Amino acid sequence: MSCTLQFMAVQALVVGSGAAGLNAAVSLKKQGVCDVAVLTEGMKMGTSRNTGSDKQTYYKVTTAGDLSDSIVGMARNLSSGGAMDGDLALAEAAGSLRAFFHLVDIGVPFPCSTYGEYVGYKTDHDPVQRGTSAGPLTSRYMTEMLEKEATALGIKVYDQYQVVELLADGDRVYGLIALHRGKAGEYAVFSTENLVYATGGEAGLYEASVYPPSQTGGCGPAFRAGALGKNLTESQYGIASVKFRWNLSGTFQQVLPRYVSTDADGGDEREFLDDYFDNPEQMLSAMFLKGYQWPFDPRKVKDHGSSLIDILVYQETMLRGRRVWLDFRKNPGCMEDGGLSHVQGEALEYLQNSGAVQSAPILRLQHMNPDAISLYADHGIDLTREPLEIAVCAQHNNGGLSGNLWWESNLRHFFPVGEVNGSHGVYRPGGSALNSGQVGSMRAAEYISHMYQDDPLDQEQLMARFSRQIDACVALGERALDSDGALLELNRERHELGRRMSLYGAHIRSRAGAQTALAELEQQELRLLGGRIASAAELPAWYRLRDLLLSQRMYLSAIVDYIDQGGKSRGSYLISDPEGSLPLPGLDERFRYQLDADAHAGLVQEVLWKSGRVECSWRPVRPIPEEKLWFENIWRDWREHKIYGGSNS
After folding, report:
1. How many CA within 13 A on the CB side of residue 45?
2. String of b and e for 489-501 (b: at least 16 CB within 10 Å)?
3. How far is CA 322 from the centre of its chain?
4. CA-CA distances (angstroms) from residue 277 to 267, 287, 338, 620?
5. How far is C-alpha 365 from the chain's CA centre?
6. Is residue 543 part of a domain?
7. Quick one: which of 407, 18, 399, 438 has its CA closest to 234?
8. How far separated are the first and last CA of the chain, in Å rounded?
9. Domain that holds residue 546
10. Strand, coil or helix: what is 178?
């Protein structure tokens, strides 16, 4: 194969065109960095632009009414879920209003009162009504408005480029190698003084996923370059639709649709939840609470809690090979004769107060959230005529790449921002991820603008340092094309990788399962490196699979290490424990579990790819800093740029 190799130099290069990446580019430009560019696989791709929920939340310091709030108070709530560094929590809290009002100013339609108060509401793990929302498409509005601002600022975009290798030497990054997705065999080398990495969560690891298909992640090249991973065990999982990927939280659950299981062909229909609840009232309460308590949580499994439903859906889909559906056309069987007579307590009060006492789930949904019906109709799914296929899906990675107080990696001049940055701990307030992406990207830009303003290496300098690595990366693709090995079916290989992670590394885990997955992964790696692809058009998929295999190794190894350190069920996953308890008698033994009880809440797990193996280590969380906030001293430190010192702790 003959390939072409282009060279570009950019002072600050942002990888990713979601809300965090575009905010980084805008912030860099506005803070005085003249040469800024965005590199993306597609401007309309990614999670920010293509996902949402019943009411997508943005989390910030309270800005309405007489509620008492503070920066430190918000930092405490952000970090109280365990395994989150206090300095990052303080920075995210302190920057929340600056980031939020920037979004307001550029046109994101957050609602306010007549007096300009941006009224909030309580989200999960939130005590003081810090949540706000622009509706189901909050992150899309953010991305669209940030793209408009980036265009007005004249920020250059390199579209259709996929990162395949970072160019790192020692403890810093100097650039990257990218493959043009639309021009077979065309590579580009980018030299950059500063690389802001906003590639999103490592979504391509899972088959059962609510991430958009266009979102796969980018941790593989970063791990290979020596970037430190952090809290890779911590992700969120929840019930979502699979034909059109969307979170099924809030009113989708509160209107009480039927949960139906069928065989692979859609036959043998049955309402499987009935077998596991003692009475209709208990089952309907769990279904209703699933709207509030949407992510799977092992603390909400026992006593017929809402997360028992996630276990039962997993049992039907992953263990029994059946399909599960939400049917909004009919009430659950236990309601058919008596209407809402079996609905009690909080659920009944909520439906009555909302005026949602209609005779069928679709009518209740039409009354409370008609946009939800329109959303699915826009994607070819008519909830008035057909059931909605669901699964328990990967939804968000609370872990990721490690960053310091200014979101800089252990690799200098490399800044992971947005979901790829593992700033969150085990539990976090709903909506804090959107705030973290905006604050982190803003802080990275601020640090770059004040500390890293040198020019990037020119072509001669870069090639002198990295020509061997560049040649080796390109040679991998050439070998895949010219190999005499077996022809690879890349779609099938991706399916195998995703199903493995959804079965062994998602919300139901065990040490034996993770070890089985690692053994299967090694065989797949050998098959990939020894196999052949049909044409250069398959190079992007081949490199992607290579990267995802490394990421999956890192994540699975982190799970094994966590269990070896005595880790139990927490966050959004259940770890099989033969000495634990079953949520219900008669369930499969793999669901026997114990809660971690905060045994590891004060620790952060870090993971490094080094010399061809995964190294795991643990350290205490950094506490929330206790500052002496005397104005004149802060002013002096700010003038002398001392606020940027000590940032590599």
Report:
1. 19
2. ebeebbebbbebb
3. 27
4. 24, 11, 18, 41
5. 27
6. yes
7. 399
8. 46
9. 486-620
10. strand
CB atoms within 10 A of CB 95: 21
Which residues fall within 8 angstroms of residue 248, CB to CB, at 6 or more apart? 238, 239, 240, 241, 294, 326, 388, 390
Question: Model pTM?
Answer: 0.95
* Rounded Cα distance, 208 and 499, in Å: 7
Residues 378 and 270 grouped into a single domain: yes
Which residue type occupies 434?
A: L
Residue 241 sits in the same domain as residue 374:
yes
Cα–Cα distances in Å, from 83 out to 95, 157, 193?
Answer: 21, 36, 32
Structure tokens at 559: 């799970």
- Distance between CA 557 and CA 613 in Å, rounded? 10
Q: How many domains does the chain have?
A: 2
Output helix, strand, coil percentages for the chain, rounded to the nearest 5: 40, 20, 40
**Do strands 508-509 and 574-575 pair parallel, antiparallel, or not at all (unpaired)?**
parallel
Q: Which own/partner pairs from 340-344 qualify as long-range (CB within 8 Å, at least 24 positions apart)? A: 342/279, 342/280, 342/281, 342/284, 343/256, 343/281, 343/284, 343/288, 344/281, 344/284, 344/285
**Could you tell me the CATH number of the domain that includes residue 567?**
1.20.58.100
| Per-residue confidence band for 154, with pLDDT thresholds at 50, 70 and 90 | very high
CATH of residue 272's domain is: 3.90.700
**Per-residue pLDDT tens for 537-571?**
999 999 999 999 999 999 999 999 999 999 999 99
Furthest CA-CA distance within the chain: 79
In the listed set 394, 424, 447, which residue is the last one of a domain according to the structure? 394
- Average pLDDT score over the chain: 95
Rounded Cα–Cα distance for residues 406 and 425 (Å)? 17
**Which region holds residue 121: left if phi is over 0, alpha if psi is between -120 and 50, else beta?**
beta
DSSP string, 322-344: -EEEEESSS--GGGTTTTTTT--
Q: What letter represents residue 236's amino acid?
A: Q
